[in-house]
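Structure tokens please, single chain.
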Amino acid sequence: MYTETSSDVIEQRLTNLLPSEALEDHAEAVGVIEREGKLQIPPLVWSFAFGFATGESRTLAAFRRSYNATADETLSPGGYYQRLTPNLATYLRDLVEARLDEVAVPHTVTDEFERFRDVMISDGTIVRLNELLSDEFQARKKDQAGARLHLVHNVTDQTIDQFSITDEKAHDSTEFDTGSWLEGRLALLDLAYFKYRRFALIDENGGYFVSRLKESANPVITEELREWRGDAIPLEGEKVFDVVDDLQRKYIDVEVEVEFDRRPYAGEQSQDTKTFRVVGVRNEDADDYHLYITNLCREEFLPEDIATMYQSRWAVELLFRELKTRYRLDEFDTTKPHIVEILVYAALLSLVVSRELLSLVMEHAEDGAVFPPERWAATFRSHAQLILDRLRQFLGYSPPPLLDRLIEDAQKIHQQRLVLQERLA
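Here you go.
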């Protein structure tokens, strides 16, 4: 059992992750603050990092209260809001990008993954926004607004390698670039990324992929890769979805030929063909098959291996679930696009801090201890305010007396504005 030898071990870990001097220097470099300004950057960053975890409110007023409870001097609502600028959004994005390699996502990598350089999972989630932002963040339905957060999760290194924010109408697949970075890597893709040309480019760059098979694609079977005894239905020359309902075998393992358009070159569009593998694993409960398309060879990967690997996509789904259920990622009430970006980056920063603390916990826990992601998220939230208070003391910040802060926060912002009780009177 771990015995804490220094009461500052948590605070030291966090300040090593985000050193105060580095936070201040970069803030000045990108124009967030002037060196002699009243705004204190470390308390601002930490109030964002823990603000998504503490309490139930995700309002800007709640973030301001968190800042005022941490910094040496309080900021009025107007003084706080005027500092929430596009430059601050850029600054927080830089912090998240610089620290995403610290984000550990607990996951047990199966033995089948050992031969790959990395296993990558790409996915996106929708953040519903105020409808007044529909011009900046176009949604798929009228009278709505939505942003799409896209992540590329590295299962092998337990990190998030890439992220981006677009409007809802932007397709997930446009945020997945194919190139030499895929060499030796396995990409696990859902139907949002289904495109034969993408599969061909992954293959040609020395990468590997597994994707669910899209029914509308319906490729032609050119060869069966497994022999069946008795009066088995011959599949060669048939289209996959034309025969799959007639099969009762446990597995399907065939080679298919697909046609696709290459990128236009010099104004001309050319077509090409590729041979891939389609496998199916029968789901007895649903009386159908889970079908996958891949370039993994049969000699090394059986159909059940393919299905097991694809199930690892749940890891990124848990990330989105945590961001939405624990940190209320989709509860933003603002009409300013850069505020949306600030809040999304703040949520990702909360995830970075949470995972850094989880890494610390795992280092000092007993061997074999297991920390389920959702249980850890709940634990982090319940202790977030205590950690923030201890971090404030460690950094030497002394906020104004509590009574003064209560008076400032509770009174009317504008003396001329009547409260409801006065209007009724």
